[in-house]
Each structure stands twice: as C-alpha cells, then as structure tokens.
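User: Predict the structure for this protein chain, please.
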Amino acid sequence: MRIFVYKTLFVILCFYLLFEFTVKLQINKFKNQVESIKSKENLNIIETKIRKEIESGLKKDRILSKEDAKIIKKFIIKLNKELDESE
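Assistant: Here is the predicted structure, written as structure tokens:
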C-alpha cells in the first residue's frame, strides 16, 4: 500500500511539473503579450501604424483586388438576406 501511495504522489508531481513547464508557461507568455499591447505607448504606436496604412491605401487606385471585392460583395448579400429573413 505504501508503494502505491508513493507512486501515485510521484505521478501527480510529474503531471504538475509537466503542466507548469508547458501549458502554464505558454499561458504566461500570452498574458504578457496581451498586457504589452494594452499599454498606452503601444496603443499609440498601433494607432499611428493604422493611420499610415489607411493613408497609403487611399493613395492607391484600387484598395481591394477584384477577387476580394467579389467575395466581400457575396458576403454582404448573404448577410442582407439573413437579416431580411430574421424580421
């Protein structure tokens, strides 16, 4: 009985360490990335990048490719149909 308890405790400890060094480590990395994005400085940087991209997009003759425009048009038509059906 004693050996069973020791083996069980050993297995539980191994699973805990495995979790700590794999899953929890990845979760902490993701949390740190999200927190760094949420900081005011990074929000300002992201905002300026978005504005630059919008300005460069407006200078182009065509923002979307013809294929993308067709796909978006079909998507909007489908949304309109579903919204009309829901009324």
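The two ends are 68 Å apart (CA to CA).
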